[in-house]
Amino acid sequence: MKGFAENGKSVLSARHSAQAPAQTTPLQVALLGASNLRLSAARAVREALRRWGCPTRFVVAGGFGRSYGVSTWCLGRAMSPLLKCRLWELLSPDLPTVAVVSDVGNDLLYGYEVEQILAWVAECVERLRCQGATVVVCGLPVENLPRLGPWRFHFFRRLFFPRCQMSLEQIAQQAWQLQHALEQLARQWACTFVPLRWQWYGVDPIHMRRKFFTAYWSQVFEQADLCLAKQLPGRSGCVWCGRWHGRGLLASRQARCGSCVLWC
Fold first, then answer.
1. So where are the chain's domains?
2. What is the pLDDT of residues 121-141, one digit of tens each?
């Protein structure tokens, strides 16, 4: 992933705002997702630090093909479900927290019913809200569906989910059901719901185009900021120099400004 190193050699940095005062109030950012989170995590860290400054503690749980409720195997790696990963042990209940729940659609293509997927996501949201977190729930790329023809659908279904036998019509129907259910869940738990724009996607209907990663995370964190600014006014940009080590559950080195990234 750009900005992160498998062996701790690459350094991810955010541009410094010379006018920004040093911040002393720690903030915790919890990110839950799958492949889109894995691909855009570096941009998420940069955007969060640009918006809120430091020290900031990031706890990130994502990965290609990751599920909210069941263990998965992708690219030679076994991954625990998000409900049972170590993110829940690493979250500090003493820090103000912004949490983003994203990449919910994988489980549809694994063959699970909307009700089951919603139950898994609801448990994650409940845990976060009961801890006092400001939660943003991201939708599915349903706006892509009318633009997704049969050829592209079958090609990417075979590529990413070779065991899935569902038709485009079945996926579309369930995706919209899940989208509406996520909106209701967000209202129920006083969370913010962020729909995904079709313009952020290209030929690949599942993964965002890299050039829109910043726009995506900017919109997500802007929504969180509406609530967070009342709790922690005055947070701003900083220099961040953390390291991403190895694979699996590994904590990054503490950054000069006191920010760190924990991957689980």
1. 7-263
2. 999 999 999 999 999 999 999
